């Protein structure tokens, strides 16, 4: 379909109303030629999990979405010298690395907030009634008229010109478009909880009042004293493949399942883990990078549906916001220049592919670093291993501004200028234009 003024609008369906789906909803709702439907399998929209990071790139995107003001009430600007992130040895408590807030009063600081607050901020920018709940997608049908969505109990919706798969790591849309792409269990689960600070009150004087990662050779614990009287704990633990494949996303488990994993940590951390009677458990799955996230010129994947990064970098929402921004931009670019939807999605692919190639590259480098350390020092002590991996992986990754300082608006502006020049050249040279077609 040509994305240009016509007798009917561009019919778009978004599957999934998580952060990426909501961001795409906000952006595409602003395009007057788009007829938008949004579907989510949940009976009610609620976030499962603990906190979520808002870094420099996240804030920039939230401002563009109109949702930043709803979240800035939970932050304080101009906090130069306040610790932002610490890395410590989980067994000894030794400080390994530390990073501070930049203290710029003109920018919101990097912070953690509870996930539901981000969801509420995004929902404040979504028109009432646009999201249809209890719509569990089971399949897609394609024909000359477009794509029809098949839901549980035989319900159908469509046809649509464009389907946006924002349905998370276990994406049904991705399975339809790329059936050979397989997820694998990483061998780890995450345990997460947010509890009142009073439950760890006597421990607070000894805990860093910042995002803190406590590392051992195979696992880590994350703690954060949140500003609203809450305390966040998130962990990784080794679990068998049999166990991981049985875990429902965000299922409640008793502390008796969690505590045994962390007996080698220092006494302070063992008390922290023991503070909550129940936890949420998440099995960590990942998959290879998709070299293309568009299919047949009418399906596109965003967020975890497009690139399952296994929770790496703690910025999945920001990456999904970048996807949504880019998708809106390429569709509007094609519309204004009377190009078709296939052109728009290929442009999206070419804009986003380098970003994810870089991110997966960091993960591959991290794994190579671990292999190198083990090869060079086969008898390395656990504490030395933790120190070296922290130096090579965490500190180096955080020093790469492209992860958290990436500016999709700037990237798109540069690409837009290049594409405009290409299209102008085609218009000036009919022979080239004919070959391009």
Give structural notes.
The chain is α/β, with parallel strands linked by helices and 437 residues long. The protein is 38% helix and 25% strand. It contains 14 helices and 19 strands. The strands form 4 sheets. Strands 5-4-13-14-15-12-17-16 form an 8-stranded mixed β-sheet, with helices on both faces. Helix 2 (56-65) crosses helix 9. It is globular and about 70 Å long. Mean pLDDT is 87; it is low at 430-437.
Total strand count, please? 19
Radius of gyration equals 23 Å
| Chain oligomer state | single chain
Low-confidence stretches: 430-437
Strand order of the biggest β-sheet: 5-4-13-14-15-12-17-16
Helix content: 25-40%
Structural class: alpha/beta
Mean pLDDT across all amino acids? 87
- End-to-end span in angstroms? 15 Å
Shape: globular
């Amino acid at each position: 379909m040509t994305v240009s003024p016509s007798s009917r609008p561009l019919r778009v369906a978004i599957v999934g109303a998580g952060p990426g789906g909501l961001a795409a909803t906000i952006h595409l709702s602003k395009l007057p030629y788009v007829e938008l439907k949004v579907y989510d399998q949940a009976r009610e929209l609620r976030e499962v999990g603990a906190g979520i990071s808002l870094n420099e790139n996240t804030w920039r995107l939230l401002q563009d979405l109109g949702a930043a003001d709803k979240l800035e009430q939970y932050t304080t600007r101009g906090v130069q010298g306040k610790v932002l992130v610490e890395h410590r040895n989980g067994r000894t408590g030794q400080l390994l690395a530390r990073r501070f807030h930049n203290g710029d009063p003109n920018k919101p600081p990097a912070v953690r907030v509870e996930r539901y607050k981000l969801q509420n901020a995004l929902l404040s920018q979504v028109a009432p009634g646009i999201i249809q709940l209890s719509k569990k997608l089971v399949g897609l049908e394609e024909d000359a008229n477009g794509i029809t969505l098949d839901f549980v109990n035989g319900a159908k919706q469509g046809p649509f010109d464009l389907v946006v798969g924002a349905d998370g790591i276990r994406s049904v849309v991705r399975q339809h478009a790329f059936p050979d792409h397989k997820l694998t269990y990483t061998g780890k689960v995450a345990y997460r909880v947010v509890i009142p600070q009073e439950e760890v009150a006597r421990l607070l004087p000894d805990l860093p009042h910042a995002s803190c990662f406590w590392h051992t050779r195979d696992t880590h614990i994350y703690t954060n004293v949140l500003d609203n009287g809450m305390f966040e704990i998130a962990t990784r633990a080794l679990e068998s493949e049999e166990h991981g494949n049985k875990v429902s996303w965000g299922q409640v488990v008793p502390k008796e399942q969690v505590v045994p994993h962390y007996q080698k940590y220092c006494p302070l951390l063992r008390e922290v883990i023991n503070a909550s009677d129940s936890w949420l458990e998440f099995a960590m799955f990942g998959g290879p990078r998709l070299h293309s996230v568009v299919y047949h010129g009418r399906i596109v994947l965003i967020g975890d549906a497009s690139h399952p990064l296994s929770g790496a970098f703690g910025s999945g929402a920001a990456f999904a916001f970048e996807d949504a921004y880019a998708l809106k931009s390429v569709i509007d670019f094609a519309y204004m220049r009377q190009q078709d939807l296939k052109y728009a999605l290929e442009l999206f692919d070419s804009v986003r592919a380098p970003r994810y190639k870089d991110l997966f590259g960091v993960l591959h480098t991290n794994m190579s670093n671990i292999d190198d350390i083990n090869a060079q020092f086969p008898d390395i002590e656990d504490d030395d291993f933790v120190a070296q991996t922290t130096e090579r992986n965490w500190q180096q990754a955080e020093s790469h501004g492209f992860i958290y300082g990436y500016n999709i608006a700037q990237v798109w502006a540069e690409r837009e200028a290049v594409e405009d020049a290409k299209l102008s050249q085609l218009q000036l040279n009919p022979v080239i234009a004919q070959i391009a077609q």
